[in-house]
UniProtKB/TrEMBL annotation:
GO molecular function: ATP binding; nucleobase-containing compound kinase activity; phosphotransferase activity, phosphate group as acceptor
Species whose genome carries this gene: Senna tora
Main localization, broad class: cytoplasm
Protein name: UMP-CMP kinase
Gene Ontology biological-process annotations: 'de novo' pyrimidine nucleobase biosynthetic process; nucleoside monophosphate metabolic process; pyrimidine nucleotide biosynthetic process
Length: 250
């Protein structure tokens, strides 16, 4: 059954129930409040539900985290939409969260824009903060984290700050020629969908993202998918991975 992000009204209600943030100047009732964070992640890692007295809405399930990796244009976003539809995950695209920061004129906006145009990687603390906020707001404990981590530094930052590791890592393996073709035809008006940026992004992918993929291969968490073929053909390789985990991820 499809699970989309929950209604805005529901988000606001939940945000309102959280304690005010003492360390953040941007939100009066910020989810990144240290005590809340520790409580949430203690519960996530121990599986022990929080009590009303803990100051945040009680949750009952440990997170099930999937990292979705692959070069630019390999089809990560496209396949994530299918996974959401079939298996009911909350899809968190790191790139989309960063683009939202640019659009909302946040303090990091211009730095993020410059970094994306150059095909480089935004500092880990910024991206992890955005992901953490979405995860804390989510009523759904099954997360598809799309396009992150993009470097070993990203990976370590996530694991340290969140005190969590992915359960599953997908790698969409696609030849460069095909990725370039797809990105140049993507037609979403993205500042990075041009030949100069894509060339830089492919170099960054090779140098920084492949080591992350190797790390998870060594840890037995990696599922390598041949990303050439029709969207449906590719999804038929993805489906059994989640079907096998369905009981665990429920
Ligand atoms: N299997 C496929 N075959 C051909 N084109 C595809 C396929 N999967 C996705 N695309 C197209 O390629 C482009 C990049 O896909 P996207 O899902 O945005 O990739 P990524 O998130 O990895 O950059 C999009 O225009 C998408 O419609
Ligand atoms: O964790 C992330 C995810 C994305 N980006 C930046 O955002 C761009 C676009 O990422 P996205 O995942 O949207 O691109 P895709 O691979 O889907 O084309 C990347 O090239 C990076 O500059 C980043 O710095 N860190
Ligand atoms: Mg994408």
């Amino acid at each position: 059954m499809p699970v989309s992000k929950k209604p805005i009204a529901n988000r606001k209600r939940k945000r309102h129930m959280l304690p005010s943030c003492r360390s953040c100047s941007t939100h009066t009732r910020c989810l990144l409040h240290e005590a809340s964070k520790q409580q949430i992640w203690k519960m996530f890692t121990t599986g022990i539900p929080l009590q009303e007295k803990d100051g945040i809405f009680p949750r009952h399930k440990a997170p099930f985290i999937t990292f979705v990796l692959g070069g630019p244009g390999s089809g990560k976003g496209t396949q994530c939409a299918k996974i959401v539809e079939t298996f009911g995950f909350n899809h968190l695209s790191a790139g989309d969260l960063l683009r939202k920061e640019i659009a909302s004129n946040s303090e990091y906006g211009s730095m993020i824009l410059d970094t994306i145009k150059e095909g480089k990687i935004v500092p880990s603390e910024v991206t992890v903060k955005l992901l953490r906020r979405e995860m804390e707001l989510s009523d759904n404990h099954k997360f598809l984290i799309d396009g992150f981590p993009r470097s070993e530094e990203n990976r370590r930052a996530f694991e340290e700050i969140m005190e969590a590791e992915p359960d599953v890592v997908l790698f969409f393996d696609c030849p460069e020629e095909e990725m370039v073709k797809r990105v140049l035809n993507r037609n979403q008006g993205r500042v990075d969908d041009n030949i100069d940026t894509i060339k830089k992004r492919l170099k960054v992918f090779e140098a920084l993202n492949i080591p992350v993929i190797d790390h998870y291969a060594k840890r037995g968490k990696l599922h390598k998918i041949n990303a050439v073929g029709s969207e449906d053909e590719i999804f038929e390789q993805v489906r059994p991975i989640f079907a096998a985990y369905q009981h665990e991820a429920k």
